[in-house]
Amino acid sequence: MGTLRHRAWGLAGAVLVLAAAGCGGGSPDAPFGGRPLAPETTIPVTRIRVPLLMGDGGQDPIWDADAAASTIMAELHGSPGHPPATNLYYPGAGHYYFGFPPYSPFFTAAELGGSEQANALATEQFWTRMITFLRHLAIHPPPAAGPSPEP
Predict the structure, then answer these.
(1) Is residue 149 part of a domain?
(2) 100-to-35, 76, 104, 140 alpha-carbon distances in Å
(3) pLDDT value at position 89?
(4) What are the start-end ranges of the E strands in the chain?
(5) pLDDT for 3-44, tens place per residue?
(6) CA angle 30, 132, 74 (to 5 degrees)
(7) What digits encode the pLDDT tens for the residues 95-137?
(8) Is residue 129 part of a domain?
(9) How many CB atoms lie within 10 A of CB 130?
(10) Is the predicted pLDDT of residue 94 greater than 70, yes or no?
């Protein structure tokens, strides 16, 4: 466990986006805060102490998102006392299906995988769930997290 390299983007203590690199060729130079992340950057997911919402597409040609998400969820469910974690899997969606809000002019690039219809449907469904998730956190913020146990 803990061998995957993960990246996360958060807001007010909630993890908004968690992606795993090194799972079939993730991009180690994807920018975060204007700076590239080093390939050895890791996030020990068992130390996440806030609610988590993830989404992954089954037709992602950039990395094996399904395997990465499954590994992350297994690590979380195998650690005691983890907060709620949800993974939304869209088998026909590609790599970048939830990058734009639904109903905005949507691009589909063949190299990012998924069909235009599957990506659009995944976008609509994921954004609906994400907004609900964030509203719930606004009303019921997670308790202040203390130090996470070491893995």
Answers:
(1) no
(2) 22, 28, 7, 26
(3) 95
(4) 5-11, 14-21, 31-32, 35-36, 52-57, 85-90
(5) 444 444 454 554 444 444 333 333 444 444 555 555 555 668
(6) 60
(7) 877 777 787 766 666 778 898 889 889 999 999 999 999 999 8
(8) yes
(9) 17
(10) yes
Q: Is residue 144 a part of any domain in this protein?
A: no
The CATH number that applies at residue 52 is 3.40.50.1820
pLDDT number for residue 67: 86
State which H helix or E strand residue 29 sits in.
none
Handedness of CA 27, 28, 33, 34 (dihedral sign): negative
Q: Which of 3-17, 41-55, 77-91 has the lowest mean pLDDT?
A: 3-17
As to burial, measured by CB atoms within 10 angstroms (0-12 exposed, 13-18 middle, 19+ buried), residue 67 is middle
- Please check whether residue 107 lies inside any domain of the structure: yes
pTM: 0.67
Q: With contact defined as beta carbons under 8 Å apart, do 30 and 7 qualify?
A: yes
Number of folded domains that form the chain = 1
Domain membership of residue 100 as a residue range: 5-139
Beta bridge partners of residue 138, listed in sequence order:
none
